[in-house]
Design goal:
Helix content is 81%, strand content 0%. It is mainly α.
């Protein structure tokens, strides 16, 4: 999934008005679409943790369909009504030249929320029942659909860059949702009607479990939009907004590995002997992603990636390279967050997760306010430093709140095999 934004960047930057269309997508379309779909992002973790039988699957499926419909209506209201102008002009102070490209992109992205809701729930079920490889195949199909849709939109429709990129992204998530629907059918068919060995899933239980999880991505994903608004009011606004999706896309490519580790922890931490293996794996992933990302920005590979592959101008390439260098800790602390968060989800103690995101949100928002008031450096550099500081605080909070659960797991592993629960 992390490859999507770099692909979009490489395509859009090779078309007319590349910087403008890229800034419109990265600073308006993408963050707005993420905020709308934020409440259903954690359906993957919820399905992994809660689906045990047909009854629990059907209840979560009904919830997913209703949530997907509501969020799609919200997306349509933003994309097709004057609400878009109020958000972009009054709230975000988006540069005038970005407004119409961004409006076009939002309209094309209408299928996004429902497709994300549907495929994330089905992927959670696939992971729960040991079919995680199918999820990877679906992601490859998504990328192939991205490329094919972008190519057709560019060559046959002669569409502008923002439309080409949005068509590719929308086609990718839709195709992945359809694939997940077909692949999950045999699993659902074989589920027990009711698994009497576990507590039945009720609407009350689902609400208590899922509400804190839903708040978590919502608070997290509002911040990139706040960041766009702050960068619009700081030094080098257009350059910063154009560079932001490039920086975010590359860093997300490496953070995505750590993000996926969350579902690995939820699915496996209950297995005897899993804790040492999960910790060793986390260390390898954290060190490996930071090392590779560091090599990419500190060696001649940087010129290959930013200038040749991404087709950025020399000035924009330099800015994005520095921006990525300031994000080097993000892949490492993302792995740590996924470990602590996965332990909390597996133990059904999800309240600590929005607490950590709340602390993150308050700190980052405060830093953005200071950045707009004092305007010390380029908006891009200030934004990535603010996000890094917030991420470190979020990781610390999750560590603190998960200590008891981690200690319980350690005691379980230390107990003789015959006495383990």
């Amino acid at each position: 999934m992390g490859v999507e934004l770099p692909i979009l960047t490489a395509v859009v930057e090779r078309m007319a008005d590349g910087d403008i269309n890229l800034a419109a997508y990265g600073s308006v379309v993408f963050p707005l679409s993420l905020i709308v779909e934020a409440p259903i992002i954690m359906l993957l973790a919820a399905a992994t943790a809660l689906v045990r039988d047909r009854a629990s699957y059907l209840l979560l499926h009904r919830f997913m369909m209703a949530a997907g419909l509501v969020l799609t209506i919200i997306h349509v209201a933003i994309a097709f009504t004057p609400l878009f102008d109020w958000i972009c002009s009054s709230l975000l102070d988006v540069p005038e030249e970005l407004l119409e490209p961004a409006r076009t992109g939002m309209k094309i992205m209408t299928p996004w929320s429902w497709a994300i809701a549907y495929r994330r729930m089905q992927q959670g079920v696939l992971i729960r029942f040991g079919h995680s490889k199918v999820v990877g195949i679906g992601t490859l199909l998504r990328l192939a659909s991205n490329l094919l849709a972008m190519y057709l939109a560019k060559e046959l429709l002669d569409a502008p860059g923002i439309a080409v990129g949005a068509i590719g992204i929308a086609a990718g998530v839709t195709s992945e949702a359809i694939f997940a629907a077909f692949m999950v059918r045999p699993i659902v068919h074989d589920l027990k009607d009711i698994d009497k060995s576990v507590e039945p899933l009720t609407w009350r239980h689902l609400g208590g479990f899922y509400t804190p999880l839903a708040l978590t991505p919502f608070m997290t994903l509002v911040l990139p939009l706040i960041g766009s608004a702050a960068m619009s009011r700081m030094t080098d606004p257009l350059q910063s907004l154009a560079a932001w999706p490039v920086v975010h896309g590359l860093v997300f490519l490496f953070r995505g590995i750590g993000m996926a580790y969350n579902e690995v922890v939820v699915a496996l931490v209950e297995e005897p002997g899993s804790v040492p293996a999960l910790r060793r794996f986390a260390l390898v992933v954290a060190c490996g992603t930071v090392l590779v990302l560091g090599l990419l920005v500190a060696t001649p590979l940087a010129n290959l990636w930013f200038v040749v592959v991404m087709n950025l101008s020399p000035e924009l390439a330099t800015m994005t390279r520095i921006g990525v260098a300031l994000c080097l800790l993000m892949p490492a602390y993302q792995v740590a967050q996924s470990w602590f968060q996965g332990v909390l989800v597996a133990s059904k103690r999800t309240r600590a997760i929005p607490e950590a995101v709340g602390a993150y949100s308050v700190l980052v928002s405060l830093l953005f306010w200071l950045g707009v008031v004092f305007n010390p450096i380029s908006g891009l550099y200030f934004a990535v430093l603010a996000f890094s500081c917030g991420g470190l605080l979020q990781t610390t909070w999750l560590w603190w709140r998960s200590r008891d659960q981690v200690r319980a797991l350690e005691l379980r592993e230390a107990a003789p095999a015959g006495s383990r629960p």
